[in-house]
Each structure stands twice: as structure tokens, then as C-alpha cells.
Amino acid sequence: MDFESIPITKRDGKILREIEILSPHSNTLSVNFSLIELSKSAELFIINDEESYILGPIISEDVTRVRNFDPGFIPGDKIRILLIENENEGSISKVEISNIGHIIYDFFGVNKFEASKIAGINCTGFGCSASCLQNITCFTNMDVESKAVALLSYTDNSDPNFPGIISLRGTGYLVKNGAQNKRPLFLAMIHGIAGYMVPDLKFIFHYKSPQCNPTTNGSQMYFVQGATQLGLDASNDLRFLELSTNPGTSRVFSENPVAYLGWSIIDEPITSITGIHHPKGDVMKYLAGGTATPIIEPGEVYGVWSYSTTNGFPETISSGSPTLNQSKRVIGSLRSGSGVPNCSNFEDFDTYSVTLSRSWSLLCQYLDPNNEGIVAINTLTSSPGSKIFPSANGPDLVCSSFTFTLQNAPIDLSISWSIIQGASLLSSPSSGTGKSAIVSISNTSVSGEVKIRFTVSGLCNSKTYDKTFWVGKPSAAGSISGGTYVYTNHILTYPVSAVPGATSYNWQLPSDWTGGGSGLGNSITVTVGTSSGNVTVVPVNSCAQGQSSSLYVTVNNCSNCRAINITPNPASESISIIPKNNDLDVDENFEILGYSIYDMNGRLLKSSDQKIIGSPKRIEVRDLPKGIYVLHLILREGVIAEKILVER
């Protein structure tokens, strides 16, 4: 039917063309447009008889193909198709309808054709799944994940005598890639979908009950028509597609967006699983199970996760639905089971989901497009999710032996390891396979740096992960830097270069010095006492002590220097230096040739090499902040050091 043959109605500067279609006893109708070219102003509506369901407005940017365009399903057996465009539109729309799909599958619960719902007998569509299966809406924690799941249908127009034959082909889901760019990548099963169907598949999103109980049909489903096959893995029953229209960026989905499921190929215990599926083409249902174990499916060649369900079970059309681990990341796609379960016996059967990791040679170029080596990623909605990578895991120090592992190692991919530095220090093998390696040192006298490398083959390209660690006692300490001729009360820093293998340092000082001790760093700040002697450092780790290093330091006590008094102390403005037993400071032999003032970290704050004139001899301290300082006075006989206190 050509819309140009339909009489027009003019209203408020608009042209309206409308037709009514009746297909008695149809539960659902679909419309196939053999040609559709909408003008810039055109809006197309498809409305059911009760006006409870509307597809539209469909505008030009929503039309993904000019020929054989199918916008979706409509409930009931009677619809109206309305085309509205501007009266002054320069180029009017071209719309031709080739056929109407008469569908007995009841997606909306309209009950126009009751024979389609004889329980257990060819019942497909709304309300046909087992009564014990719970709506996904009952599980609010799965709302985001459910937005990625779609029911797959196919319309067969190959027979001109019976065009528009609808069949349901399974469940599938949008999957996220490492670029996090909302590319419409979609995973489905091979079984149930022939290759020739892919360009005309219909992907039905958001087909769910709007409430937990009782089950009701949703006010609207969202459709995407057509896909391109990116590849398939016949050995794993997986078909990988890219949708012709991206629901993540489409205007049609703006009010009810989709999600892109995160995934994982990590070799880790799967303590529980959840699933979201369309059993018998019904609204979205929930599925949960216990521990999942990787096996080869009995009687088949497929590598699968095997698990028993604890809530719900799969039925026809469930195939291809996502299987998520305890972190709600996809680990596989539901494929089959060990029997035909029902509401009373489903816990007695095993359910099988093919593993994503077995098809990684196909999937990695799309799910990890930048070849980052991603092994897991979180679900994407409006904002990017976290990426997870493998890493070599083990201690920084080994005293005897330890098992190093590749953390977040992928399952089903080849992993090897090798000692690429320091193999001569070890008695254990220098290479092997698997995600763990035992490292043992040759004897207690050896020490040095060792590097282990894990290599993963199959992450698009091979990836390597290194861990550098130390074995045995630390190396010998190097030379200590710092003053070797010092004064009592002098505050000094003594550093030594970081010692390979050392985790701490023990510092030994001459008697009556302060600042030494055990478990310190490779630099210390000391307050000099009256005794000369060695400053010694010993590098330490939990295996043993390394060879020490010492520096001899001479303390100038200035035994010939005059004893002095400093007053006032504490001070705020200035201090006076007076020889003891000479309060009038009339001793002409007492001279101060210069001074230095240090803070308690040994930092020089002020100094002078000028002789101090006057009596008493004064030094200004008003420019110093409140605190404790060390004053060095240069006398003719030598240098003396005293502590002063500045207050405000």
C-alpha cells in the first residue's frame, strides 16, 4: 500500500494521512514498510485500537533503513497508522507498506487469541513462562543490568503466500568495551539464529513487567532492527554482533536508556551467579544460582560454567541471556541444562553457560580495542566503569621461599613465568607455566635482587607482568656523610645512601648523644653530646642484618673556654652573654668573635663573623619565631654551644 493513495486531511498547516488495519484474533501486530523516506517535518505514529500503546513519533532520524523497515510490535488486532507533515513541505514523504504481521504470540497480555496460551503447549509470549519465575522488577539491585538485555525476534518474509511469519530466537545483551564509547556490541547464541537472519533480527529492549506482582505488560517496548555479524565461535556457541542502531545514542531510548554489561574473564572462585532472561518469550525474569564450576558440557565440546539454580530456571528462548558473577560482571551466556526443569524439581538439574574466556581470541579485539590487557570491567550506563588488569603479586623480600602469583589471571588463556634476573640466587626452577610460581633462595648467605615475569598469551597480544623483589640479607652499607669535627649541643644530620634490600636501619651513636636507635631511616638528625666516637649504621631486613658502616666524629668540648651566662633565657628581644662570676662584664680578655643560631633540625637561621662590641655583649633574637634554638659562640679559645628559648 502506497500512502500517496490515501486521502489527505488538512489541519492547522499540517497534512494528515491515516489508515486503519484489522487482523482479527491477532495478539500482536507488526508493520513492514517496504519503502519509507520521511520528510524533515514528518511524524509517523502507529497506535493500537485502545490507544494504550503508541509507537512514535517516528521521525526521519529514527528510520534505520529505507527498505524493509519494521519499527516494532503493537498489541491487539487493530491498529491505526498516522502520518503528519507540514503542508508546505517541499519534498513529501514516501511510505509504502508491504505486509502486516499477524502474530499469535501474546507479548502484551491482550488475550485476543487464547489458544496461544495453553500452558506448556506452544505457549510463547507474555505470561507463558513457569509460574514460579519471578519478574526482574522484583530485584531492584538488577535494574541497571536489565537495561542491557533484549529479546530477539525474526520476521520471515521469504514466502510471498505467508509473509510476516514471526519467530523468537533467544535472549541476548549489550556488552561493554574497554574504550567505553557505547559501541552497540551484542552477544547472542549461534543455535537459534541462522546467519542470514542477522541483518533482519529485531532486538526488543525493556520488555519487562512494570511491577513486581502481579505481572503486567509494560507500557512500551523499545526496538532495534538489524545487526552486522562481527564474528562467531562455533566451538563455543557464541555469535558476536553489532546493532545497526545504537540504542545508547538513539533519541528513541533517551527516556529509558540502555546499559552495557561489564564482564570478567578472571580465574577466580564464582561463589554465586545471577541471570536475566526471557523464558518462552515472556517479560524479563530473574535467575539465581550457587557456585559455578568450569567444565566441558557433558556430551558436547563447549567449555561451560556449570551451576545449580536456587531461584528460577531457564526455558525455551532463555538461551543467550547473560550469566553474571557475584560482582555482577558477565562471565558467560546461558546455553542449556542437564534436564527439563519445572517449579518443583529445578534444583536437581545443572545449568550450563558458555564461558566468555573460551572465545577471547574473537572477543578481545572488540572488548579490549586498545589492547590494554583488560580482564574485567564494570557495567556502563551514563558514566565509565572501572577496568581491572592482571598484576604480579608477592612480597618485596624473600628470606627462604614464597609462592608468587599472577593476580587477576585470566581463565582459559595460556600463562607462563620466568626468572629474568637473579636466577643464580635461587634453588627453585627458573621458568614454568600457570599463574603461580614457588621461589626458593639457594642458602642463607646469598642476597640480591630478583625479577619474575608472568606472560599471558591470548589477550589480543601477549602481555607481561613483572615483580622485582629482594632475597636474603641487605647489601653492605655505604659511607656515612656528615661532620667529623663538631661541638657539644650541635644539631647535625648524618645520611647514608639507601641500601638495597634494607627495610630499616639501626643507628649507634657515641655516649650521651641523642637521635639514634633501631628501626630508623637511612638519615638521622642528632644532638651532639660531649663524647667523641663512632656514628655507626646497620642495614636491616627481616632476614638478617647487612654489613655496617661507621664514621668517627671528634667533639670539640673547648675545655679552655670561659663559662658563660645567657640572660634573659627565655628571651623575646635580645640576649646578653656574660662571663660567669663577672656580672659587670669588665673582663677585657672575654671576646666574642662571631656567632651562629640553628633551629632544632640543624638549619642555620642567622650568623655573624663580626666581633661583638660593647658590654654586656648582646645578640638580637626579636626576628626569630617562638621556639628552642642552639647558639654557637666563637671565642678565642674555641666554640661553645648553648640552648636558648625565644618566647612571644
From TrEMBL:
It comes from the Bacteria. Transmembrane segments: none annotated. It holds the Pfam family PKD_6. Coiled coil: none annotated. Residues 568-646 form the Secretion system C-terminal sorting domain. Residues 474-553 form the PKD-like domain. InterPro entries: Peptidase_S1_PA, Peptidase_S1_PA_chymotrypsin, PKD_6, Secre_tail. This is Por secretion system C-terminal sorting domain-containing protein. It comes from Algoriphagus boritolerans DSM 17298 = JCM 18970.
